[in-house]
Amino acid sequence: MTDKEKHIKTNLEILKNELEQLFDFFEKGLDYYKMVYEFWNAKDILGHLTFWHESFARNISDLGKGIKPKPLKGKLSEVNKQSVETTKNESIENLIKRLKDAQDTIEEFVFIDQINLIPYKKGSRDYSRSEHLEVVSNHIHKHLKDISKIYGTTKELL
Question: How far apart are CA 137 and CA 130, in angstroms?
Answer without folding.
Answer: 11
